[in-house]
Amino acid sequence: MTPISRRDWLRLAGSSAFAALAPAAFAADSTKPASSLPPVRAITRGPGFHWFAYYDKFQFDPTDRYVLGQQVSFEHRLPEPNDVINVGMVDLHDHDRWIELGQSRAWCWQQGCMLQWRPGFDHEVLWNDRDGDRYVCRILDTKTRRLRTIPAPVYAVSPDGRTALSVDFGRIFWMRPGYGYNGVPDRHQHEPAPADSGIFSVDLETGKTELLMSLAQVAAGAGQPPDGTVFWHKFIHLLYSPDGKRFIALHRFRPTVPHEPTKPKGGFNTRLLTAAVDGTDIREVNGPPMTSHFIWRDPEHILAWANARGHDKSGMFVFRDEHQTRDITQIGTGQITRDGHCTYVPNADNQWMLSDTYPDKQGRQNPHLLHIPSNKVIPLGHFNSPREYRGEWRCDLHPRNSRNGRMVVIDSPHGGNGRQMYLIDISKIVG
């Protein structure tokens, strides 16, 4: 990996490029009348608050009947180690009936407990939990109710469902509460780039784990700032490629006062890295200062909101998966103007992108579709986000597609009864 130049280090040392992202919006008409928006219905309700969290996992089962979710009894604070959430699913064919599946003590607001349907298995779901002083993964057969435990937590699961990627969730929490888990402290919290912490491969049948890429390894590849600034490193946002041969990881680092993680000197800087599933052939696809949300378009291309090489402004770009690629194409030019949680709509030949916004100036979050060939944005709704939903316990929409690409589920507090899950019918738009 090519070290960062002295000029770039000086520019990045005090950067808050990622942390200071402005509230997102898009350039489409935000006053579109409600009568022209697609139908929306709540699929969860009180008592309790419901959400799914991240946008890049299977929330719908293969039949698109069952929709996974998490239930909690409080909001507006960080989880404590003994705060328990219920794991369950909604039966869309039975009046949105909530079905309990289990519990978790390893969760966060933004990414939940990594709850998801296990790829390649029709009836199995998995989620992270805490067992004493370690994080684990539970795998449940929803038909037989057979539950087994893998002795490591998971972050992303391979397309065949046999292997997962894991990271140190305690370190993520230590460096940015709201994304990691509170309960098992990071044993390397006084080390900027530990050699035995990083990305692990987990066999979901045997539980065997293997270190694929260490923080020390990627920190060395990034180079050392000339002024001697100490940068603290972590991995976050892991995702396998569609063919299961490679994976993405965001390498984030920030200058931080040692032993005082609540007093950073600056924001995170980010490198988008990919690697073969055995941890070899590491490529820096996009370098600092910023890569944010992303998704694989196909095994050779990645869609991401980023500051891209050769472009003056951040935007939504398609990168070829190669080291320091110059094969970069912007999409949504003039339409997608801020960051969002982006995916491609299934069964649509990569013609449609689903995304959302953070609250705009009116406090509304706006899920939308981008028709890529025509560069046209189609709003899916405008959902008010009360001001108390900010910071680490905010409620992002995180729009998720059904398997057939005809439905979308979001998390939103706009209905007045806390965060709940809502289903949007997009079949008449993309059909």
Keywords:
431 residues, mainly beta, Methylamine Dehydrogenase, Chain H, 4-stranded antiparallel β-sheet, 4 helices, 6% helix, 36% strand, disordered N terminus
Task: Describe the overall structure.
There is one protein chain. By secondary structure, this protein is mainly beta. The chain has one domain: YVTN repeat-like/Quinoprotein amine dehydrogenase (Methylamine Dehydrogenase, Chain H, 7 Propeller), CATH 2.130.10. The protein is 6% helix and 36% strand. It has four helices and 30 strands. The strands form eight sheets. The protein has a four-stranded antiparallel sheet, with no helix packed on it. Strands 2-3-4-5 form a four-stranded antiparallel sheet, with no helix packed on it. It has a four-stranded antiparallel sheet with strand order 6-7-8-9, with no helix packed on it. The N and C termini lie far apart (44 Å).
The major sheet is characterized as: 4 strands, antiparallel
Low-confidence stretches: 1-30
Architecture in CATH?
A: 7 Propeller
Q: Numbering strands along the chain, what is their spatial order in the largest sheet?
A: 1-30-29-28
Shape: globular
Kindly name the structural category.
mainly beta
Strand content: 35-45%
What is the CATH H-level superfamily?
A: YVTN repeat-like/Quinoprotein amine dehydrogenase
Helix content: under 10%
Number of helices: 4
- From the N-terminal CA to the C-terminal CA, the straight-line distance is 44 Å
Overall number of structural domains: 1
Summarize the structure.
The chain has 431 residues and is mainly beta. It has helices at 6-12, 169-175, 215-222, 427-430; strands at 40-42, 49-51, 66-72, 85-91, 97-104, 116-117, 124-131, 134-141, 147-150, 156-157, 163-166, 198-203, 209-214, 231-240, 246-255, 269-276, 283-286, 291-298, 301-306, 315-320, 328-331, 343-344, 352-355, 364-365, 368-371, 376-379, 383-384, 400-401, 407-412, 420-425.
